[in-house]
């Protein structure tokens, strides 16, 4: 089980992510997340869910690259591909509040994973963020090009995506990538109090806030998300990309290695 | 008189808000604001207006809840309801510059009041902000769901609205809720110099800046504002909301009380 | 030669701006920039270009006002006026990455010049920014009313444009006007490593990032840019503007003077 759900109350769930060794977003992650999403949507009392990591070094490392063809195929209820874009849209549209409490690395699809949440809190000392795809000769394919600029503005999104470098939580908060950077010792308590507070409010009012905000605010366009994902999978087949990926695997990619701890330096 | 206008010059007016005990946005506030708005629009020399509070603890506490049905009804010249949305749009569209110089609490409709201004300066030590409606089982109905995310981005607007909690001026400035947090001892001097500077410029150029910016930038949609306000008044009638409001009144709501000073804790 | 190009590599060019005494954006600047733009677009290997200044006090001071009628006339390949709006759009749409490394003053058209770049890094101690047009009885005419609010939000753009005042790099970074403020001693090294890193990546991936982002993000509207420019040139003929400009020239405008170093104080 990659996702362990702690039902703090009927209204407040905590989900812990544990996919050793580095919390890769692999095909199992994808399939189990679909089951969890169905379960959350089916629960009429759920008001707030917090996602956290069991691995303090990695929140979600990135997409698993060796078996990219094995991700589930097809179209979900949102009209988007079920592998991830459909789940991202369902998190956005859900009547409950989604919070990412981030410790460790959230890079590539890991960064795009948290961008789909309503709210992001990050450990000031232990959370790191990147969109490293440019370093493998590609570009963000899981929503980073559709959602990151809505958080940070276009100029800072271009800086992040074109550098592919690691960003600490302080800079991520300054840029709007996350809501706040919180001292690591306080993160769990802060997030827990924040979520419990929301769980104490009226479910109908929470659902109204999300529905009205989703009507008013600029949201990613479905056609953009799907076109970019298609371009991303094509880019992974470029000669340049295949060579860069091969070299990174030789250095320790997808293992609990210095490459994964400090990916920004290796690109 | 809730609003006292100090005409520093023909081009620069200062308006002090004084509606004891806690500067509630009540029916008198609404009616007198309509008169003041007419007066400002009618004045051809006015270039800049600063709103400040006579009460250092409260800028505008929030909407008055016991007589919500007595607010003026009808449609204003903008096509929006006259109770407040029409005034907010007229402030936005005015050829003069509106500045809120904020000391004390600006919660709920008080927060939405300042969101309608062009520019917001806040006392670093003494200004506090909240959209506390979720705590009474409702949601922002006076523009907060239409304007706040344009200032802070969607993620931080959701955090603010879903928590209903109090935010100090430093965090409000970091989020973009206000332009700047300024040390309390410097706030009045800073705002006065800023406004006097604008008053020294050419009225036609100022009006052009506002007109062009209003054409270029994303503005709240009239239909969204009206639909949300309608939903808000309906939500106040929900059983959950009526019970929460009743409980808060028993603790001291709408009085100069610890509840009003520290509303975030009581929700 | 106002622009000296140092081809660090085929993929990475550095352009130094030198137009004594204060790097005015004059007719020569405009014509030579058009030639440079053609050269950059024609080069198939170029991935990243950094613009910096040879004059530590001035990045680009502002537009030259005495010969405003002599700027090149006509429409460029983007459908925009060639004097500057066409170049700005071509920088935005280029398949290579444009970075401004800013030291000294970037005011008016100098500020609008850097707003057209993808990414902006500024010297924390030595970079200063302003849209001072209100001080000459006009308003930004070279894109400032179309691009600045996309970086800073509407409220802070209005503050900047309506005050006409000088902003240091720290506040500019807080507002999003620049990506980051970097200690002056580190700026050159930081920008160089950042650009060299981008130059090490795959050109096709970089071009895809820019193309997709330009499709997804909010961009300035051509019609708005042209209409504002037309209004700007008309405003320069207003009596109020002509008098304000005349007074500033008498104090030392367009010379290496205290007026140009501290323009905000003189407006």
Automatic annotation (TrEMBL), chains A, B, C:
Protein name: Enoyl-CoA hydratase
Pfam families: ECH_1 (PF00378)
Domain of life: Bacteria
CDD domains noted in UniProt: crotonase-like
Stored SUPFAM superfamilies: ClpP/crotonase (SSF52096)
Organism per entry: Filimonas zeae
PANTHER family per the UniProt record, alphabetical: EG:BACN32G11.4 PROTEIN, ENOYL-COA HYDRATASE
Signal peptide: none
Classification via Gene3D superfamilies: 2-enoyl-CoA Hydratase, Chain A, domain 1
GO-annotated molecular function: catalytic activity
